[in-house]
């Protein structure tokens, strides 16, 4: 199934590699950069939980619902985050890009823009998706702003959508890019990277 067939996406700034257990130590180090697991409105693994999180994502890949990647900086060779295609719907040719986190030191750099450009290019031009979704917690203002900067449009808010690990209820903000918007979004992201 092409939606979950492992592949590597290489750009100028980052490489997205098929996630595997050999990434555990480097990703544990990356998540320490900013102590990302302390953000209450996200579900980012603690360093000691990284192997279990990788195993969870690989299990979802085996079930056909996720394609997970490790994100590696090209300048230093260090791992700096994770991302996925998730909630894969091959019949209707839709995916969500999500379960993404980045080390604090690469946030608000070209890393996210290039990673999203590569993921969106593959989704629209190789997988022939009709839409790509992004979802985030209502309270995650940084993520909401980053998704909007990509050019995605807000579809709506799913109220009381999920229960968080701390028991609080999450309102989920849903964004998407549809197939007809892709040429404009691609040009926008290429322009941002070229500046």
Automatic annotation (TrEMBL):
InterPro entries named in the record: Acyl_CoA_acyltransferase, GNAT_dom
A matching Pfam family: Acetyltransf_3
Highest taxon in the source lineage: Bacteria
N-acetyltransferase domain residues: 14-153
Transmembrane intervals: none
Keyword Transit peptide: no
MF GO annotations: acyltransferase activity, transferring groups other than amino-acyl groups
Keywords: Transferase
Protein name: GCN5 family acetyltransferase
